[in-house]
Amino acid sequence: MQVKNIMTARVFCVDATQSLGDAAHLMYERNCGSAPVVDDKDHIVGMVTDRDITMAAYMNGGSLNSIPVSLAQSQPIVCCKSDDEISDVQHLMQMNQVHRIPVINDDGQPIGIVSLNDIACAYKSGVEGVDPQDIGDTLAAICSPKREFKGLSPVASA
C-alpha cells in the first residue's frame, strides 16, 4: 500500500518567520495539530506541532506572537514521497517518534501529510496492505519516553 492512497492531501503550512501565534491560529482554524514549515520557495524546512508551540511558550516565556516558528520547529525534518510504502513510513514514524510525516514532491514542497491516524483508519476501512501489528508497534514506539526538548531551559518563574 502506498502513501498516496491514504494521505491527507490538504496541507496547511506556515513560514519559519511567522510567529507561534500565527501557527496556533492556523491549527485552531484548520483543526489540525501540526503544520509543515516552509521557506520562501515553499520548500519544507521543518515541522511544528501544537506541543512544540506549548513547550516553546513555556521554555521562553512571553507572548506567542513574539516567538518565531523557527525557534520551535522540529529539525531535521522527516519526509516521505507519495509512492513510498506505508510500512516504510511506519518505520520512519517509529525511529523518529512522530505521529505525522509530511509528504513532499520531487522539489521538496509539501503535498500532503500521512499520520498514524490515517493508517489506522485505512485498516479499519478494510484497506489491504495495512497490518494491525505494524500499527501497534508504531504506536508503542511513538509513545515511549522522548528525548529532551530542544535543549532549552525553562524560564524561571517569579
Structure description:
With 158 residues, the chain is of the alpha/beta class. It has a single domain (3-143), classed as Roll (CBS-domain). Helices cover 37% and strands 16% of the residues. The chain contains six helices and six strands; from the N terminus they run βαββααβαββαα. The chain has helices spanning 20-30, 50-60, 69-72, 86-96, 116-124, 132-143; strands at 14-15, 34-38, 44-49, 80-81, 100-104, 110-115. The strands form two sheets. It has a three-stranded mixed beta sheet with strand order 1-2-3. Strands 4-5-6 form a three-stranded mixed beta sheet. Strand 5 and strand 6 form a beta hairpin. It is globular. The chain starts with 13 loop residues before the first strand and ends in a 15-residue tail after the last helix.
Key structural traits:
158 residues, alpha/beta, CBS-domain, three-stranded mixed β-sheet, disordered C terminus
The neighbouring-strand order within the major sheet is 1-2-3
Largest sheet: 3 strands, mixed
Number of strands: 6
CATH topology: CBS-domain
Rg, please? 16 Å
Q: Beta-strand percentage?
A: 15-25%
Domain module tally: 1
Helix content: 25-40%
Give, in order, the helices and strands: EHEEHHEHEEHH
Overall, the morphology is globular
Q: Which structural class fits the helix and strand makeup?
A: alpha/beta
Give start-end ranges of low-pLDDT stretches. 151-158
Overall mean confidence score, pLDDT:
89
Q: Provide a count of the helices.
A: 6
